[in-house]
């Protein structure tokens, strides 16, 4: 397995961990009556601020992960792995790991900078695939 694919597999595990943690926190805050329902109504109580942040951090990874997976996939399929693509993949993973506490703890403006770094890593993968 290429280093980029290893980073992708670890990013997938990060995605699962984020989902489990955010879901658990939501279940504690909102109760299983709401979280197991079809959610046709708003919850009867608000989640804690940190729970809401963890849910948003997970949602953000839902949006970002396909870009990373596509970039790594293209690099792997075309066998264009290089030092640049390896670094981009691992920096992406590090940024996404760091993004979770940055969002949960409200690190301003660092959370946004970390997000931009991860996005730039995705862009590097696509650019590397084109050259």
From TrEMBL:
<keyword id="KW-0472">Membrane</keyword>
<dbReference type="Pfam" id="PF01124">
    <property type="entry name" value="MAPEG"/>
</dbReference>
<keyword id="KW-0812">Transmembrane</keyword>
<dbReference type="GO" id="GO:0016020">
    <property type="term" value="C:membrane"/>
</dbReference>
<dbReference type="InterPro" id="IPR001129">
    <property type="entry name" value="Membr-assoc_MAPEG"/>
</dbReference>
<keyword id="KW-1133">Transmembrane helix</keyword>
<protein>
    <submittedName>
        <fullName>Membrane protein</fullName>
    </submittedName>
</protein>
<feature type="transmembrane region" description="Helical">
    <location>
        <begin position="112"/>
        <end position="130"/>
    </location>
</feature>
<dbReference type="InterPro" id="IPR023352">
    <property type="entry name" value="MAPEG-like_dom_sf"/>
</dbReference>
């Amino acid at each position: 397995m290429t280093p980029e694919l290893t980073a992708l597999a670890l990013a997938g595990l990060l995605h699962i961990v984020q989902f489990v943690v955010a879901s658990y926190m939501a279940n504690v805050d909102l109760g299983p009556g709401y979280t197991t329902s079809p959610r046709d109504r708003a919850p009867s109580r608000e989640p804690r601020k940190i729970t809401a942040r963890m849910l948003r951090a997970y949602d953000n990874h839902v949006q970002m992960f396909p870009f990373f997976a596509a970039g790594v996939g293209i690099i792997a399929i075309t066998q264009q792995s290089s030092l640049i693509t390896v670094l981009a993949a691992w920096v992406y993973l590090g940024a996404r790991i760091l993004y979770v506490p940055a969002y949960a703890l409200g690190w301003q403006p660092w959370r946004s900078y970390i997000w931009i770094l991860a996005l730039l890593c995705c862009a590097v993968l696509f650019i590397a695939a084109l050259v």
